[in-house]
Amino acid sequence: MVDWTDDRIAALSDQDLKNLLANAERKSVTDIIEKCQSELEKRNAAKPRKASKPRSELKEFEHEMSAQLAEIGKEMAGKYDLSEETAKAKSEGVKGFKAHRLLDSKGYAKLGGMQRDGSVAMERYISYRRGDSTAYLGVFLLKDAPAEDHEFHVIAPKAFLPDGKPVAQIRPSATDKQKQPADSGLSFKDLPSAAAAFDGALAKMTA
């Protein structure tokens, strides 16, 4: 019978070490099992860990925009009652009503359907729904466009958005389903102006 000393086990290749461990486990040889596991742990600890890939400039920008939109969402939630419970209570009788979560599960802006299906480079947004009405604020970047070409879109019913245009005008690349024909929209180059329009739409919606 082989005397499996620590040195002898340390000299084995990774595969031979795993084979020895499997055999020892099959035969319930506790001391060899412990020595093999200890050696495997040492080897795993010594292996260089894969460094996570740094975010691209566009992904970094998207992350920053998601955080900024989320901050506006939290500010609006402090100003108006945007709870799901109130939305449901105020939407009684609206067929198929589903309350919108203002932010995603991690507390950032939500991932838009146009980014999800790859038709645009970026669509991150926050939104609130009550009854048949939805107020939306998001950052929008066309596919293959430089980050500086991004726009901020506010989408809401025409009654809540003075000077609103058909969504098809601010998103000409959108499909019919994505254009949300029942709503109107405004496009901005700066977030504070877009946030002010979103604030105005929420004020009317929650009045």
Describe the protein's architecture and organization:
With 207 residues, this protein is an alpha+beta fold. The chain folds into two domains: 6-46, no CATH class; 57-206, no CATH class. Helix content is 43%, strand content 17%. It has eight helices and six strands; from the N terminus they run H-H-H-H-H-E-H-E-E-E-E-H-E-H. It has helices at residues 6-10, 14-27, 30-46, 57-79, 84-89, 113-116, 167-170, 191-206, and strands at residues 110-111, 120-130, 133-142, 151-156, 165-166, 184-188. A six-stranded antiparallel sheet has the order 1-2-3-4-6-5. Strand 2 and strand 3 form a beta hairpin. Helix 2 packs antiparallel against helix 3. The longest helix is centred in the first third of the chain and has 23 residues, at 57-79. The radius of gyration is 28 Å and the shape is elongated. It starts with 5 loop residues before the first helix and ends with a helix. The model has no long low-confidence stretch (mean pLDDT 91).
Fraction in helix: 40-55%
Globular, elongated, flat, extended or rod-shaped: what is the shape? elongated
Structural class: alpha+beta
**The number of domains:** 2
Mean pLDDT: 91
Q: Give the C-alpha Rg.
A: 28 Å
Strand content: 15-25%
* Main pleated-sheet profile: 6 strands, antiparallel
Report a brief summary of the structure.
By secondary structure, the protein is α+β, with helices and mostly antiparallel strands. The chain has eight helices and six strands. The protein has two domains: 41 residues, no CATH class; 150 residues, no CATH class.
